[in-house]
Amino acid sequence: AQKITQTQPGMFVQEKEAVTLDCTYDTSDQSYGLFWYKQPSSGEMIFLIYQGSYDEQNATEGRYSLNFQKARKSANLVISASQLGDSAMYFCAMRGLYNQGGKLIFGQGTELSVKP
Amino acid sequence: KAGVTQTPRYLIKTRGQQVTLSCSPISGHRSVSWYQQTPGQGLQFLFEYFSETQRNKGNFPGRFSGRQFSNSRSEMNVSTLELGDSALYLCASSLKKGVGNEKLFFGSGTQLSVL
Questions:
Q1: Model confidence over B44-100: pLDDT tens digits?
Q2: Best to test chain B binding among A30, A44, A49 (most B CBs inside 10 Å)
Q3: How far out from the chain centre does Cα B69 lie?
Q4: Closest Cβ opposite residue A91 in set B43, B55, B107
Q5: Does B88 touch chain A (CB under 8 A)?
Q6: From CA A80, how far away is CA B111, in angstroms rounded?
Q7: pLDDT in tens, A2-61
Q8: Mutation choice for A interface testing from B23, B45, B60 by most A CBs within 10 A
C-alpha cells in the first residue's frame, strides 16, 4: 500500500521569503512518481511539479523545486520568493508507475499563508 | 485551450435522492478520473475512465458509478444519497492513461451538499 504524510497542517511565511513544505511517503513500488498540487480557495487543483523515482536530479519548475531524498522517502516542496498568491492548500501525491490504473494517493495537505 | 469543466458548480440535495455530475475534459484528453474531497477523509480516488472503459475503481460503495462517452466527457452518479456524501467532487483529465508521469489536470469541482 502507498501512503503520503504531510505533517504540517498549516504554515506561515513572509512575502519574498522561501518556504519548505514537507512530504514523506511509503511505498513498496520500485518505480513511482511524486506530484505536488496547489489548491486555492476556488477549489481547482493546479499541478506544480513532478519527480520520478529514477530521476537523478531534483525537479524544478520556475519558483518551485522538489527536494527529493529517496533513501529518506521524502519529497519536500520548496517555494522560493513567496508571493501573496501562493496562499493556498498544497498537496503531495504519488502513483506507482506501472500499476494502480491512474490512481493518485494524496496527503492531507498543508495550508500555506503568505504574509505581506 | 479550455480547461476541465465541471457542472454544476454547486448542488444541494436531500437524503435518498440521486445526483449526476458532469465533467468535460481538456480537448484531446482521453482519460478522466474522479476524486472525492472531504475535510475528514481528504482526497480519495473514485474511478478512472479511458476510452469509455473503467480502468480502476476506488473503495466506494456501488451507489457511486460513472461512465464516459465517446467524446471523452464523463458523468458520475450517486444514488440514494447519504449525509456523508457531502463533499467536493473533483474531475481530472489526462492525455493518456493515468500512469507514470502523466499529469492530471483538475477542474474546479462540484460542491455537493446533502441535507
A1: 999 999 999 998 899 999 999 999 999 999 999 999 999 999 999 999 998 876 566
A2: A44
A3: 14
A4: B43
A5: yes
A6: 32
A7: 899 999 999 999 999 999 999 999 998 888 999 999 999 989 999 999 999 998 899 999
A8: B45
